[in-house]
Amino acid sequence: ATTSVTLNTGAIMPTVGLGTWKSAPGEVEHAVEFALKNGYTHIDTAAAYQNEPEVGQGLKASGVPRESVFLTTKLNNPDQRHVPQALEASLSKLGTPYIDLWLMHWPAPMTKDGKADKAYDWLDTWKSMEDVYLAHPEKVKAIGVSNFSVEFLERLLKVAKVVPAVNQIELHPSCPQDDVVEYCQKKGIILTAYSPLGSDNSPLLKNPVVNKIADKYSVPPANILISLHANKPGHTVLPKSVTNARILNNAKIVDLTEEDIAELHKINETHHFRACHPAWTGWGGLGFPDCK
Ligand code: A2P
After folding, report:
1. Per its UniProt entry, which superkingdom is the organism in (predicted)?
2. Can you give the pTM of this predicted structure?
C-alpha cells in the first residue's frame, strides 16, 4: 500500500485525507484539529460544504505547521464565472495563504439561485482556473477536477494547457467507475476516492465479502474499504468522520492481496449504488458521470 502519491506537478499528496463533506460547523473544527494532531497530513473541503472557516480554525488549533498539511478545496458551481474572486474567498475563509489543490467541483456552472447556467461553458471555467494557477502559483499549488466522466475529461484534455492533477470522484466497491479510473491512470491524473465507505449508513460496512476480508486482517470493515484505494496505483482516499475513534482507526491501512481486491471488485456486480446521486443527472444538459 502507498502512503503518498506524486502529482503531475511533482508535489507529494498523502494517500489518506480527512473528508469533510457533511461535516457540520460545530463538529468539523474539532475533527480537523484531532486528525492533524493524530498524524493526518491531508484535509479535503469545498466552498459548497460551507465549512471552510471551521476547517481553517481546526488547522490553526492543531498547531501543525501549514506546510506539513496538504489542503484541498473546490470551486463552487455558482462561482464558475468568478474564478479569481472565488479563490480569494476560499483562501480568506480557510485563513491560509495558499491551497495545495483546487478542484472544479462539478463540470456544471450554476446561477446564484442554483439553476443550471446554460449560457456558460465549464471549459471557460477551466481556462480561468489555469490563468489563476499560472499567474499565482504561490496561492494555488495544483489544479484539478471532480465528478468528471471520461467524456468530460476527453473534452477537457483536447483544449487544456494544464492537465488536471487530480480527478476526485465517488469510488467504492459498489461504484468502481472502472472506465474513469483507467482513463485517469493512462493520463497521469491522480484519482481521489470520495465516499469510500459508501457515505452515511452504508450497506458496504455490513457486506459479507468486506467483513470476511476485515476478519482476515483483524480490522474493522471500514479499513478494508479505505485500504482498497491505498493498494491501487495513483489513488488517494478521503474517509469522512467527525468521531475521534473512527478518525484514528481510518488512518490504519492494510496491504491487500490481488485476490482480496478482485473479490471486492465483484461486489458491484450484485450490489451497485452511488452515494451521490442528486437530481443533477443530466443537469443542464451537461450530464453526470454515472458509474458503470
Ligand atoms: P461519522 O462522521 O459520524 O463518524 P464516507 O467516508 O464514505 O463518506 O462515509 C462517512 C460516513 O461513515 C459517516 O456517516 C461516518 O460517520 C461514517 N464512518 C466513518 N468512519 C467509520 C468507521 N470507521 N466505521 C463506521 N462508520 C464510519
Report:
1. Eukaryota
2. 0.96
